[in-house]
Amino acid sequence: MTTTVTWLGHGSWSIKTENGTILLDPFLDDSPTAPVKAADVEADYILVSHGHFDHVADVAAIANRTGATVAAVVEIGQWFQDQHGVENTIQMNLGGGITLPFGHLKMTLAHHSSQLPDGTYGGNPAGFLLTIEGKKIYFACDTALFLDMQQIGDAGIDVAVLPIGDLFTMGPTDAVKAVQLLRPIRVVPAHYNTWPPIEQDAGQWATLVHQETEAEPLVLEPGESFEL
């Protein structure tokens, strides 16, 4: 079975593998760009990058309905257990990894902030490097540009998913620099055009990627997919 990766708008993704479905940062019911609602999705694992509402809003509802395991930093995993009755969590921290039925999950550095919706401290923000059937997909999640992306790229990235919205994360120019550091085969933009403050021209960004890197840019509309 081919692994299928679907953009659910903003920073939300669904990764369907032969050995389970992974959701990343599900923000669906209140998102103006999500093509589905929280009640419509299935999950075996839910990855949470940090505590902001637009990344955790639907995690508990989906986890409690499906029995999915939530993988997050210790503070967020514990918060979902204590405050929302989520039974199954994998509590990690930066640099840590774990082998799961779908493959390997590593939690990577991100430069951002993290506070949960009720004001609780959300620990360190993170990205994720997934290895699925020999392919590596890197979700930078919400982050600024940082030089250690070069080391992440040393793993040999097949697909990198990068924010380009600016204001809250790196913008298009820094995202091109991130591609140069990561050296992925393909790169996909995310975390843009959800609201006016983060509107960007992804087509123009893709042109810069073509001109200034060796990567192939892939621009999706919410609900569209690609194969890993």
Walk me through the structure.
With 228 residues, the chain is α/β, with parallel strands linked by helices. The chain has a single domain, classed as Metallo-beta-lactamase, Chain A, CATH 3.60.15. 22% of the residues lie in helices and 28% in strands. The protein has helices spanning 53-56, 59-66, 74-84, 149-153, 172-182, 202-212, and strands at 4-7, 13-17, 20-24, 45-47, 69-73, 89-92, 97-100, 103-109, 126-132, 135-139, 159-163, 186-190, 216-217, 225-227. The strands form 2 sheets. Strands 6-5-4-3-2-1-14 form a 7-stranded mixed β-sheet, covered by helices on one side. Strand 11 (159-163), helix 5 (172-182) and strand 12 form a beta-alpha-beta unit. Helix 5 (172-182) runs parallel beside helix 6. The model has no long low-confidence stretch (mean pLDDT 98).
